[in-house]
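Posting for a labmate who doesn't have an account.
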Amino acid sequence: MITLIVPTRNRAHTLKLVAPSYFSQDDVSELIFVIDAGEDDTGAVLTEIARYHPGKRLRILTNEHRLGASQSRNVGIAASSNELILFCDDDEHLEPGYARVLSRKLEELHAGAVSGRRIYLRPAETKAQALARFGSGLRPGKPFRPLLCEYVNGARFAGDLALPVTNAIILTRRSLLLAFPFDGHYARGNGYREETDFQMNLFVHGFDIYVTNECHSFHLPLSQVRTGGQRTRPLQRLYWSVHYTRYFFGKYYTRYARRIGLKAPRWLAVAAFALFALYRETLRPGLHGIALRALTRRRPAAERLPAA
């Protein structure tokens, strides 16, 4: 059986929308929510949802002081009772069968960790519409940028793919999490790389990480997420992304580069990432909006999604 762990802080409003999909997962017998010194009614919301799923064990743990998402995951791991651990974010739906598919893939692929594909919902878009839009990816190109150590979420690929890192909604083993715990250093700002750190720790120790097209998670639109790292200002996101990437590369870059055969020095990787992050936070949003509007205008009216 599987334990599902969700770190959360003041996200009762999103958990009302997404948590029922956690309780409905096959093979998940235990759900642990770690409230990181939150102040809203998260506990009451989860208790009410759990009433409709009496076969599931709900545990709500509360940090007296704010620890951050990484340490909150460690708190949940220490309290878990199953060997298989599924992590989820508190603003993400899970497709029915997500946990069961990943459990099968973990065994078949002899993986250290495995995820499904993540789809970012648009405002007013249903999950069925999002799945049809996404397919096996949204654009051509490689699904991983080695120099930046960045997983390209929307890249097109089929089947199962081995990569150094994937998205945050992973299934792994408790024994590995105890051997390679989450790093609490990523507690400030937007926590960039906090989930990637664990995956990279597995990768540099010889474990394989996979992403599969056989199951999906659905991230809520930004309009439904009022708090958290996504709501920080662009310059703040830029600062913390570069800050944490320097730390992350300092820990892993030499071993990571050796395993994938990357010859570039670490300073060049950090510089390249800083330029990429600057583009991502300043130029790309505008270019993406222009492209999306142009695509929408070219679609027949019957295929267009409802306005937000």
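Reply:
Got it, the structure tokens are right above this. The chain has one domain: 2-230.
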